[in-house]
Amino acid sequence: MRIGDYKESYAADEAVFSTPTSRFWLGVLFAAMAAFPFFAGDYLLYMANITGIAIVAALGLNILTGATGQISLGHAAFIGIGAYTSAILTNRFGLPYLLCLPLAGLAAAFFGILVGAPSMRMKGLYLCITTLAAQVIFEFLFVHWETLTGGIRGLNVPAPEVFGLKIDSEFSFYWITAVVVIIAATVSRNLFRTRMGRAFIAIRDRDISAELMGINLFRYKLYAFAISSFLAGIAGSLWVGHLRSITPEHFPLHESIRYLAMIIVGGLGNILGAIYGAIFMTMIPELLQSVLKYFESMFPQAMAFLFPLQTVVFGLLIVVFLVFEPHGLAEIWCRIKNFFRLWPFKH
Amino acid sequence: MPILEVNNLRLAFGGLQVLDDVSFTVNEGEIYAIIGPNGAGKTSILNCLGGFYRQQAGDIIFTGNDISSLSPDRRAALGLARTFQNIALFHGMTVLDNIKLGSHAHLKSGLLDTLLYWGRAHREEMKLREEIEREIIDFLEIEHIRKQPVSTLAYGLQKRVELARALAMRPKILLLDEPVAGMNAEETEDMVRFILDIQEERDLTIVIIEHDMRMIMDISDRIMVLNFGCKIAEGTPGEIQKHPEVLKAYLGEKRKHG
């Protein structure tokens, strides 16, 4: 139980991990992340990698849609831009992977600013439609600009090399994913401790009074678009490094919607929420599948009927979530923490 | 010395003349009240001053500069702060963050600073926090709620937080749109005390719109009366109370017989 909460400076009061307990658990988390690959098999490491990539992208969308309130249906396209940029820079110019990562982010950020430009005049659902248009346009380009993107056959890239080491296994790529996830989460958290993050939330909550408070709406919306698609581009570059091949099929509209679902299930505008949402949306389908596999051994004939059911169950889970916990997984976590703060006393 | 000069302001929405040739000046350090029946155009004046409405004619001179064509965020940075009739706080943020947001235009950390946080952004945030605690939170007696989300607060407290946010903008002039509307006697008294303290201790100029006549007559130095978008009177509370045009606008005319 945590009794009293004495702080002696404002810096201590504003720290993210403000109590020894929370710093202890952060240490435990890092230790667990570092130990994980030595115990996990290839399949689990693969899951960890794609979850990490999803986390980075979801953190990005969370800044734009969750915090700034600009609904984007084009997030998958920005991930795609990052992925193609990274692949093209590797194949044509032979740039090292660690350089491709930020460049992919910058390329995506550039297009993010272009797509965000209409936000000067439009907001809400109308802006949402322009992001949908961006999704469609970029998907079209991925397929038809064959000289650059390889058309529907896509591009293959060699295994990335970092400091002379070949990153060609799930085990080795795990370290890259882990570091990028930690950086992305730190950077997002920092953003909301300062003026820029506050401006984003102000624009979401009440844009008119935000402007009268001295916030240049257009500039800050563009910042949100840029940061969000920068993270998407990084996620795309991670994707390429991990799978070593891309096709346009990897970045369809329903992937954009899946990212929206992640941040909604996790908790809009909440950094932990984006992380939980990404984990939930990547792990649950896999979990459902392994449960079904287990039943398959018992009732071999039932599979034909059960297999499509996993999509239904997945959808149902999301609906149940939104009905009973509209603030997402982050809110549940908050309640659990508050419960243990007073435990074992009730008040 | 005038800090704000409004000359021949005209505003129309389609055929509806909202403000018709309104001119007034506000002197440094005074409390200037704008009163008038509902729909007289009081809030529209504030919206023109803040840049939310663009007037069709007339100009606004603030501390010697013509700000008529500046965008709302530029005007805010120059020292024009306001509160709203229907509270316009940011509901997803805590009280503290709402107040910090008021200082937005005075902070300098850029994109990279905020992403890295340590260093310049950290120093700036700590300085800001200390200033806000010392000069605003303490002053307005809202220490106990500083970490609460504003949506959980009572109406009177929300109004006070809005005032705190406006103060954090380090304004030269404070535009208050019905600061005590919907408050009970005790809350009104508290708010009036804060407004008077602000004016005295910080040498702020205050423009206030309010329907609570007792309060207006008590605290304002000068009053302007609007009716249907026209300025019908201006003067000290004593003059306004006896002004025939004002009595006509508020109470109506005696029917003349014969």
What does this entry look like structurally?
The complex is a heterodimer of chains A (347) and B (258). By secondary structure, chain A is mainly α. Chain A has a single domain, classed as Orthogonal Bundle (ABC transporter involved in vitamin B12 uptake, BtuC). Chain A is 74% helix and 2% strand. Chain A has 16 helices and four strands. Chain A has a two-stranded antiparallel ribbon with strand order 1-4. In chain A, strands 2-3 form a two-stranded antiparallel sheet. In chain A, strand 2 and strand 3 form a beta hairpin. In chain A, helix 13 runs antiparallel to helix 15. The longest helix of chain A is centred in the last third of the chain and has 28 residues. Chain A is globular, with a radius of gyration of 21 Å. The model of chain A has no long low-confidence stretch (mean pLDDT 89). Chain B is of the alpha/beta class and 258 residues long. Chain B has two domains: 167 residues, 3-Layer(aba) Sandwich (Rossmann fold); 82 residues, no CATH class. Chain B has ten helices and ten strands. Chain B has a six-stranded mixed β-sheet, with helices on both faces. In chain B, helix 3 packs parallel to helix 6. The model of chain B has no long low-confidence stretch (mean pLDDT 90).
